[in-house]
Each structure stands twice: as C-alpha cells, then as structure tokens.
Amino acid sequence: MRRQLDAIKESNGLVGLNFEVSSVRADSHDEPDTLLTVLARQVDYLVERLDINRVAFGSDFDGTTMPRELCDVASLPHCDLCREERKREQARARMRAMRMRRLAMANR
C-alpha cells in the first residue's frame, strides 16, 4: 500500500477514501454502526502520506454498507467527518497566513 501511495504522490494523483465500512475498519467487519472517527483516521493517514490536495471522498452509496451517519449524499454536509475536515482546512489556512506574515516581516 505504501508503494502505491508513493506512486500516486509522485504522479500528482488523487486517492478517494471509500466510506464502505469493511474497507476502513481494521477488523474488516461489515458494521453500519462504525464510528466516523474510523474514517477520520483514514483521512488523517492519507493526508499525512500524500497531502490534503491528493485526498478526496470516494463514497459508495449504491449498495454497500456505509456508516449510519453517512446514509446518503445528503448527509455529507452534516456529518462530523466533514466538519472535522473543514476545521482542519481552516486551521491549515490560518497557519499558512501566519507563516506568510512571518516571512514578510523577516524580509523587511
């Protein structure tokens, strides 16, 4: 898997995180009560390995077992996973702005 992710990163590719529960659970159980923190850990791992711009949601709403909180596409804006991701992106944007201000001050 690491070699595949390295190849994706090197080719500026994109990975879609599949929400199908048995694909993201360490025990591979087909359990609809899977917590969204399991998906969040997968997102964090992929972002760490690849970069935020190379990770996408690759859901599978048409016939597989999804977490109950993600029963269909309409639930995406309301799920904790999406809110957490937005918070992380906002935090990254603030950090980038702080770094840019520091660089600007250092170059005066």
Architecture overview:
The protein has 108 residues and is mainly α. It is 51% helix and 6% strand. Helix 3 runs parallel beside helix 4. It is globular and about 60 Å long. The N and C termini lie far apart (46 Å). The mean pLDDT is 85.
Q: Which percent range describes the beta-strand content?
A: 5-15%
Percent helix, as a range, is 40-55%
Q: Which sequence of SSEs, written as H and E, runs from N to C?
A: HEHHEH
**Backbone CA Rg:** 17 Å
What integer is the average pLDDT? Answer: 85
Largest sheet: 2 strands, parallel
Q: How many strand segments?
A: 2
* Ends distance: 46 Å
Total helical segments? 4
| Sheet/helix structural class | mainly alpha
- Flag low-confidence runs: none
What is the molecular shape?
globular
Number of domain units: 1
Give the strand line-up of the largest sheet: 1-2
Features:
single chain; 108 residues; mainly alpha; two-stranded parallel ribbon; globular
Helix/strand layout:
Blueprint: H1 2-10, E1 15-17, H2 21-24, H3 36-50, E2 55-57, H4 80-106
Parallel strand pairs: 1-2
Helix pairs in contact: 3-4
Task: Describe the structure concisely.
The protein has 108 residues and is mostly helical.
